[in-house]
Design the sequence.
């Protein structure tokens, strides 16, 4: 075994991205983290194109990304390392069943673009900067990685998640993130993606073969819980739901504050 390295796995929305902006303090902190020889990982439910949109205009570089709530791993140039996709025909089934909901928007994320397929909720224009309107015909020849659901009624989340489990259990899972329920390949999660990334890096032929990686995570929502549990050290953003706080060893007001503490500790 050779020496070790630290890895910080960072959620995007509600962690570094607020009102479509990343603070200069967080940008500078993430840069310092990498300059100190540590690894920075973006870990998000966003797709490749949605991550690019979130970081556009901000001087943020990263080493790896865990995307689509753990279904896809990429390098720092958005090159796909590994990807899991949903079965052909599943999106049509989801549209047929969940499209009957009174208030729902159904999206599809792929490796080369994201679509809004159904909307009875009136999802705002901010979302339409990430998803273009389309139909299932636009998905021809493209593998679907995830099916994000934007829900207008928080009380319906439990019912819809139960329906998903009943109809497609073993094929897909639901990952909650604020007012979204992301349908992803069964077994995928931010935590599973993080563990897989570490295994690939430290295993035979990996970029960090033979090294140990100490993992830190920071995030604010329910879909971050598996990421925190999988890490050596889980850190929740201040104001996170109680369930998130319960699995973390500490909390932080910002990524900048956390990085300052970690670098000071050496």
Sequence:
């Amino acid at each position: 075994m050779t020496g070790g390295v630290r890895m910080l796995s960072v959620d995007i929305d509600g962690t570094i991205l607020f009102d479509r902006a990343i603070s200069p303090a967080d940008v500078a902190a993430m840069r310092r983290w990498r300059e100190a020889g540590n690894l920075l990982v973006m870990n998000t439910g966003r797709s490749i194109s949605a991550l690019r949109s979130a970081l556009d205009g901000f001087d943020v570089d990263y080493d790896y990304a865990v995307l689509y709530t753990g279904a896809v791993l990429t390098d720092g140039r958005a090159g796909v390392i590994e990807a899991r996709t949903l079965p052909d025909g599943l999106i049509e089934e989801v549209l047929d069943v969940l499209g009957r909901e009174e208030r729902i928007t159904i999206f599809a994320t792929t490796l080369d673009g994201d679509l809004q397929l159904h909307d009875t909720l009136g999802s705002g224009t901010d979302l339409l900067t990430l998803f273009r309107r389309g139909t299932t015909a636009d998905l021809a020849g493209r593998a679907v990685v995830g099916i994000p659901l934007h829900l207008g009624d928080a009380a319906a989340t439990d019912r819809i998640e139960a329906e998903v489990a009943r109809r497609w259990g073993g094929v897909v899972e639901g990952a909650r993130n604020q007012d979204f329920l992301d349908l992803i390949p069964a077994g995928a999660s931010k935590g599973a993606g993080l563990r897989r990334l570490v295994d690939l890096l430290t295993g035979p032929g990996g970029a960090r073969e033979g090294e140990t990686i100490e993992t830190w995570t920071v995030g604010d929502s329910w879909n971050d819980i598996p990421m925190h549990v999988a890490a050596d050290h889980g850190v929740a953003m201040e104001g996170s739901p109680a369930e998130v706080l319960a699995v973390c060893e500490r909390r932080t007001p910002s990524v900048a504050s956390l990085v300052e503490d970690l670098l000071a500790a050496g």
Remarks:
- The mean pLDDT is 94.
- The two ends are 21 Å apart (CA to CA).
- Residues 93 and 99 are 9 Å apart (CA to CA).
